[in-house]
Amino acid sequence: MTEPGKCSVCGVKTKGRHALMCRPCRTKTSRENMPNVGVRQREWQLKKKYGMEPGEFDAWWNVFKGKCGICDNDLTMPTKSRGQSLGTVCVDHDHTTGQVRGLLCNACNKALGLFKDDLKILSNAMKWISK
Length: 131
Fold this sequence. Notes:
Largest sheet: 2 strands, antiparallel
Number of helices: 4
CATH topology of the largest domain: His-Me finger endonuclease fold
Mean pLDDT: 87
Number of domains: 2
Order of helices and strands: HHEEHH
Shape: elongated
């Protein structure tokens, strides 16, 4: 443990008495970690929403070969902007049990949501289309 007022990385005296790192070391450390922030945030969200462990999403991606489980279109990864395209990957799960069913495109995931995951409604929709 370094003494108070000294940088824990380079040992230089810091401006603040309780500062753990000097400004140049803090800047360098945060820049090195910046590319990983999005990955860590996505892993945290997958864990919180679906109980998925790190790497589990990648396993699902490999199983589905980057394609939607329903329409078989290519999936794209989410962007940081608001409002995702219809081809953006979504984790589909059973709202009753919370169990992950697989990966879908945003359009198919929304369609299932609008049909309330109800087989009777989906069956009626199939009959309607076939008329």
